[in-house]
Amino acid sequence: MSELPSNFMDLDNEFSAYENSGVVIVPIPYEKTVSFGKGTAKGPTAIIKASTSIELYDDELHCEPADIGIHTLKEIHNNFEPERTINLIKSANESLLENDKFIINLGGEHTVTFGSVLGFKSFYEDFSVLSIDAHCDLRDTYEDKKVCHATVMRRVVELGIPVVEVGIRSYSKEESQFIINSEDVVVIHANEIQENGDWINQAISNLKDKVYLSIDVDGLDPSIIPATGTPEPGGLGWYQVLSLLKQLFIERDVIGMDIVELAPVKGLHGPDVLAAKLAYKSIGYKFFQN
Ligand SMILES: [Mn+2]
């Protein structure tokens, strides 16, 4: 694997050195509690590798978003139990926030979001989480685990952080009760997205001014991103996600984000490129929209 790029988009030092960069990519190949298909540990490397195939020029924004500077951090790599790992992720995010960087965490399984959100919570008093996902991840416990991919948004809500979930189409009876009884969770179901032209406004209007964005790639349709552990039919299309992100970055202050649950399939590069481009489009929308 000697052809591995040293950083996201293989940028020159001028545009990727830490001190020159407004954005920092944090690779977190953590995979410990996944339940069905495995492979998310290979996600960050696949995304960084695929990123080198993306044009620097953004055909929609008519600029090169990489001008903001994109540094790629060394992997946060370990096989600890979730409680220990989330602390490492939390501290890494805190140090980057202290240096005023825009963070893009690359999972790994969805559990990594909890560590990141904890880091943001020690820095920001008041913010929402927007989660694009097929699954609610609102279980109280899963296979006796409190902190895992299937409980991550429940743990976030318990921190007093409201969550808006978009693209949802798979959850348990227990989770449905929790959604009904909780004032801190708003769910935009995937089928509503197909039928309701106002779903983007509905999602954004329920968010606070500051937003942490978490993209589980299985929120998108498996026809465009089959490379994920728990695919569900009927997800968001590429331009639906871009429309949501574009409006979100205009109307809210997105303080940081993650892209999780990519489980690369050997020889199938489309999903890896899609995930890399989601990161690059987000950078463009964050820094180069009027
Ligand atoms: Mn999911």
Overview of the structural elements:
By secondary structure, the chain is α/β, with parallel strands linked by helices. The chain has one domain: Ureohydrolase domain (Arginase, Chain A), CATH 3.40.800.10. It contains nine helices and eight strands. The protein has helices spanning 43-51, 82-98, 112-121, 152-158, 173-181, 190-195, 199-205, 238-251, 270-287; strands at residues 23-28, 70-72, 102-107, 128-132, 163-168, 185-189, 210-216, 253-260. It has an eight-stranded parallel β-sheet with strand order 2-1-3-8-7-4-5-6, sandwiched between helices. Helix 1 crosses helix 9 (270-287) and helix 3 runs parallel beside helix 4. The longest helix has 18 residues, at 270-287. The chain starts with 22 loop residues before the first strand and ends with a helix. The mean pLDDT is 95. Manganese (II) ion (MN) binds at residues 133-135, 216, 218, 230, 261.
